[in-house]
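Researcher: I'd like a candidate sequence for this fold, 73 residues long. If you have to choose between options at a position, lean toward the conservative one.
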């Protein structure tokens, strides 16, 4: 069964130090480069999610600007 357009699945092996290698196809699709910082979100029931690279900045702005664009009061 072919995957729906824009949907992917990969596997990764956890090494002795708890590190995983992000598959090259995933790095290429999501423009992940060496030294990039990724945000990992975890839910004990639903698992781990790695949102897009810009998500951290967006979440930071929401948290510290109360969801408003621009400067806070």
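Model: Candidate sequence:
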């Amino acid at each position: 069964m072919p995957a729906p357009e824009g949907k992917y699945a990969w596997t990764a092996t956890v090494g002795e130090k708890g590190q995983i290698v992000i598959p090259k196809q995933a790095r290429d699709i999501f423009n992940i480069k060496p030294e990039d910082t990724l945000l990992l979100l975890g839910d004990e029931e639903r698992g781990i999610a790695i949102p897009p690279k810009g998500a951290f900045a967006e979440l930071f702005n929401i948290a510290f600007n109360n969801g408003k664009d621009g400067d806070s009061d």
